[in-house]
């Protein structure tokens, strides 16, 4: 057997072993995601959803607030109201009088894609509504509480994905700038939904062309493979900030297949006679400037021409 063929078979065996290990890791990753989002989180979501629906059904007025009106003064008014209501109900229970007479008006406040509710027990509920391509997606809840009007608020429960930095933001912002904390959660949630839905859409539209696909839980790292072409194309994108919906880093490599007629090599020696990948710079630029489904369509549309140009250029060297 020729040495070059032996090297090639050894490398193929190593590649298949690596591929098998990666596939096993991806399966375990999916199992972990499923387990982490089970019973307790679902119970909290169902309970809070019912409570927020009841609060919405009891509302007598919804006030739409613009960005200028959404400020510390309004939030202080809401906080004062929920504490006064809680104090009145506690006193009414002691003297046996109707608890809700002074608080028959139930006002909610809508600011962009979030709604602020006054909940029982001196709590403030924020309902976050998310969208993709103009269509509604998921609803998330966050409940804030403080022991008194003068004490700082804390997050007592929420239905945001566990891998988003809710507790870090609570520590950094909630006591010093509550408005910024509430708004920042909205931005992080919407960006996460946007990235997630972009991946869902390319799988739905182009799943027959995509091989292995990996993503981190917050979808800030995404990698997938295109195998239905003359080259195997690996695409890796990353988001340096979880508020981003377009990648800050993109790397696209085309790997010539061994069975292809043209195989680019740097050397004719047996040890170096391996396919050498090359960057597809046009694809990397598309990924950083277009949403993922649009970028994917542009990449595939131009791919065969780009490969021909690269092969022709290397053949002439």
From TrEMBL:
UniProt entry tagged with the keyword RNA-binding: no
Compartments (UniProt record): Chromosome, Centromere; Nucleus
Transmembrane feature ranges: none
Matches recorded under InterPro entries: CENP-O
Entry's Gene Ontology cellular component terms: Mis6-Sim4 complex; nucleus
Main localization (coarse): nucleus
CDD domains linked to this entry: DRWD-C_CENP-O, DRWD-N_CENP-O
Keyword field: Centromere, Chromosome, Nucleus
Stored Pfam families: CENP-O
Origin: domain of life: Eukaryota
Similarity annotation: Belongs to the CENP-O/MCM21 family.
UniProt protein name: Centromere protein O
Protein's organism: Miscanthus lutarioriparius
């Amino acid at each position: 057997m020729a040495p070059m063929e032996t090297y090639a078979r050894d490398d193929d065996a190593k590649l298949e072993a690596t591929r098998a290990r990666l596939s096993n890791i991806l399966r375990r990753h999916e199992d972990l995601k499923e387990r982490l989002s089970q019973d307790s989180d679902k119970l909290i979501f169902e309970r809070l959803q019912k409570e927020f629906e009841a609060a919405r059904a009891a509302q007598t007025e919804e006030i739409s607030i613009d960005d200028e009106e959404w400020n510390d003064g309004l939030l202080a008014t809401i906080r004062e109201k929920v504490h006064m209501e809680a104090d009145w109900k506690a006193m009414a229970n002691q003297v046996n009088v109707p608890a809700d007479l002074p608080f028959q008006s139930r006002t909610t406040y809508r600011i962009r894609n979030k709604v602020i509710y006054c909940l029982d027990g001196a709590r403030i509920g924020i309902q976050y509504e998310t969208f993709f391509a103009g269509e509604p997606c998921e609803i998330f809840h966050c409940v804030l509480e403080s022991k008194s009007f003068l004490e700082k608020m804390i997050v007592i429960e929420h239905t945001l994905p566990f891998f988003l930095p809710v507790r870090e933001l609570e520590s950094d912002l909630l006591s010093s700038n509550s408005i910024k904390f509430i708004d920042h959660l909205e931005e992080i949630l919407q960006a996460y939904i946007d990235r997630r839905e972009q991946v869902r859409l390319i799988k739905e539209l182009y799943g027959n062309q995509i091989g292995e696909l990996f993503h981190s839980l917050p979808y800030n790292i995404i990698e997938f493979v295109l195998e239905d072409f003359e080259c195997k194309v690996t695409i890796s994108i990353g988001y340096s900030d979880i508020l981003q919906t377009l990648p800050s880093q993109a790397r696209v490599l085309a790997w010539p297949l061994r069975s292809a007629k043209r195989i680019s090599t740097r050397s004719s020696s047996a040890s170096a006679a391996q396919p050498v990948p090359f960057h597809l710079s046009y694809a990397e630029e598309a990924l950083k400037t277009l949403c993922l489904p649009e970028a994917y369509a542009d990449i595939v549309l131009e791919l065969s021409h780009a490969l021909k140009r690269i092969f022709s250029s290397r053949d002439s060297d």
